[in-house]
Amino acid sequence: MKHAYNKVGDSHRAALIAICGADNVLAGSNVPEHYSHDYTEDLRFPPEVLVKPGTTSEVAAIMKLCNDSRIPVTPRGAGTGLSGGALPVYGGVLLSTERLNKIINIDVRNLQATVEPGVINQVFKDAVSEKGLFYPPDPASRGSCFLGGNLAECAGGPKAVKYGVTRDYVLNLEVVLPSGDVIMTGANVLKNSTGYNLTQLMIGSEGTLGIITKIVFRLLPMPTHDLLLLVPFPSAEQACEAVSAVFRAGITPSAMEFMERDALDYAMQYAETSIQVDPSVKAHLIIEVDGNDPETLFRDCEKITEVVNGFGCMEVLFAESAQQKAELWKLRRAVGEAVKAHSIYKEEDTVVPRAALPELLRGVKETGRKYGFRSVCYGHAGDGNLHVNILRDEISEDDWNNRIPEGIREIFSLCVSLGGTLSGEHGIGYVQKRYMDIPFNTAALDLQKGIKSTFDPNHILNPGKMFPE
Ligand code: LAC
Ligand code: ZN
Fold first, then answer.
1. Which candidate in 60, 135, 204, 379 could, as Cys together with 387 as Cys, close a disulfide (CB 3.0–4.6 Å)?
2. Distance from Cα 294 to the centre of ligand 2, integer Å
3. Measuring CA to CA, which residue among 415, 424, 338 is closest to residue 379?
4. Distance between CA 132 and CA 126 in Å, rounded?
5. CB proximity list for 460: less than 8 A, separation 6 or greater
């Protein structure tokens, strides 16, 4: 359904300045260029006005003003998203959470912490780690992405395979609704059977239901040891076959990452690493185990080595030092940016039950041959979560916009037929909404749209996202 929106006029701008102060309200050409994009393809949508509230009550006043005036509001964290969630596709107000960046409290006795949404993931990890605590979610952009954005998209990362994703660490939220009302969604407890679970509804809602202004996390004790294995394979499919066998052998690694040869090559060039890979290697698995007892971890690695040997891997390498481990992780985290530096690409975030990974990889490559695109595949193999970067290369504008999406539709249909879905951790946002009819029938989509309308009857919050229009 289309909604009619108003432009941000002089009186609205004056009202926003009265709420946040003139320094925190920028309009037109005064809005720095980077606020018009995130990390998604080469998409650009400048907002009419950028506002940077510093308190919950300022957020509430902005929402009330925009709701009363039918002005669209797009919430924005650090802008590292890969599905266009933070793009103000209808113009209007871009609400940046960058000034809401306080760690309010780390409650060591309860293993909890309360933060504002503009705290950087890594800053939070470091702060809790100083107190012996562990916040596992670690998206590749952890050095710059905001926790609020991590909640909006339900970010994952390599550790998710053992520790779960962002939603598994959130206990309670303060949320500003489009009306300007402020609610708490839950309680700071590990068990809660009180009413509908609004906390979990907010997570992954991509800024379409409310603005998260405080987050209460649960934390874990920091594990003391980890070991990292690098397992080369002569074929990408064999690497994928080995993944589920490791879990079936009774081991849950703390990371189980896959990189096909092209992903390795792009990352090696980009990250200027000393790591060298023999030309016969066609894929790598990076496997990490962690815990508190080194003996157990060594035994786990022996078992893993036994299993992967059964899938024709080449010589298994141990990362000997902290520096080697860091270098391997740097290489793995660089893949996305490395590919982007080479070519515009469409990033698909396919996810299937883990044992279906080889079939998914085969299907992706077959589809590429049929539609004439190259793909670079890598990702969180242990979660069945394969990132498929479809390279723009020399593909014409028309094919890029019309024919390639048909191929992507085939890939997503394959995912769903294998028991999977469109996105494991990047969200739907602006670029995947046209495929939402694949995993959901009309009844399931209408139910979600009904929830959206209940929270946001005027559809002012992050319009143009998640649902096909
Ligand atoms: C990664 C991001 C793209 O896994 O999700 O590198
Ligand atoms: Zn990822």
1. 379
2. 28
3. 424
4. 10
5. 5, 66, 67, 70, 71, 72, 73, 92, 178
* pLDDT tens digits, one per residue of 388-442: 999 999 999 999 999 999 999 999 999 999 999 999 999 999 999 999 999 999 9
DSSP code at position 330: H
Q: Which protein residue's CA is at the shortest distance from atom 1 of ligand 1?
A: 140
What is the greatest pairwise CA distance in the chain?
Answer: 70
pLDDT at residue 3, as a whole number? 83
Q: Which long-range contacts (CB under 8 A, 24 or more apart) does 165-169 make?
A: 165/137, 165/425, 166/137, 166/203, 167/200, 167/203, 167/204, 169/135, 169/136, 169/137, 169/217, 169/218, 169/219
How far, in Å, CA of 7 to CA of 9, rounded?
Answer: 6
Q: Is 197 left (phi over 0), alpha (psi -120 to 50) or beta?
A: beta
Give the pLDDT score at 76.
98
pLDDT value, residue 469: 83
Quote the pTM value.
0.98
**Residues framing ligand 1 (Cβ under 6 A):** 139-140, 335-336, 379, 387
DSSP element (H, E) containing 444: helix 442-455
Q: Looking at the DSSP assignment, which residues form a beta bridge with residue 214?
A: 174
Instruction: Tokens for 28, please give them.
Output: 């037109």
Pairing of strands 93-96, 73-76: parallel
Stated as kind and residue range, the H or E segment containing 407 is helix 404-417
**CA-to-CA distance for 202 and 150, rounded, in angstroms?**
12
N-terminal to C-terminal alpha carbon distance within the chain: 7
Segment (H or E) for 458: none
Give the model confidence (pLDDT) of 331-351 as tens digits: 999 999 999 999 999 999 999
Q: How many of the other CB atoms lie within 10 Å of CB of 64?
A: 17
Separation of alpha carbons 154 and 240, rounded Å: 25
Which residue's CA lies nearest to atom 2 of ligand 1? 140
Q: Which of 129, 101, 128, 133 is nearest to 115 (CA)?
A: 101
Measured from the Cα of 426, ligand 1's closest atom is: 5
pLDDT lower than 70: segments of the chain:
1-2
Exposed/middle/buried for 93, CB within 10 Å: 0-12, 13-18, 19+? buried
- For a ligand 1 pocket test, name from 335, 340, 348, 376 the mutation site with the most ligand atoms within 8 angstroms of its C-beta: 335
Angle between helices 236-248 and 357-371 (to 10 degrees): 160
pLDDT in the model for residue 1: 55
Ligand 1 centroid, distance to 354 Cα (angstroms): 17
CA distance 425 to 459: 24
